[in-house]
User: What shape does this take?
Amino acid sequence: MKLEKKSIYILITYIIVYLLPSLINSFFQITRPVLFAIQIGDYLAGAALLCWLAFHDMPSNFAEKKPQSAVKTILWGLCGFVIVIFLQTLILKITVQTGGDATSQNTTALLAVVRRYPLYTLAIVVGAPIMEEIVFRKVLFGNLAMLFRFLGPKLAQLLTAVISSGLFALAHADGHLVLYGSIGLWFCWLYHHTGRIQTSMMAHLLMNSLVVLPLILT
Assistant: This one.
């Protein structure tokens, strides 16, 4: 019961964190610089709060039964980053060759914000990946599988990997469902393989950093 309750708390907290800047803006009609400053603080505070909820007195799920060492976690995080970049490149190349558009409206919009407000990098590189890994991988993949334990661990995790990755793709809302769904499945595998959510967090943070940091370093 504690696992289910804490998972619900995490999901509710994430929704509040996600909606809070828009709600504040709708009531007070604040300027864009102030809005982005609020989003940065909101995402970082949200990431810290979700980490506390996820790691403080949280029962283990199927994916966490045999956690690997810190060294292996770091190595798999780095390896996971390299592979996710290769996966992303491959899928986008296939998309172009089949007549699709490789441009991500979501990424383009975020990069436009970073160009004008470099500190927004903190929200994209730190806040968002941490919250997404806790919500989509730890809760919707790992913890949700416990509700389907009657199917057996493997089938339960396969089902929730598909569910969480599908929701992860829909959450990015830019039409690249196959791309984000594939990334979500790969992050689920990293988490399951090492038994530590920190592995997929590392790969996710590095992936976002590769996209954003060159803009503020040049």
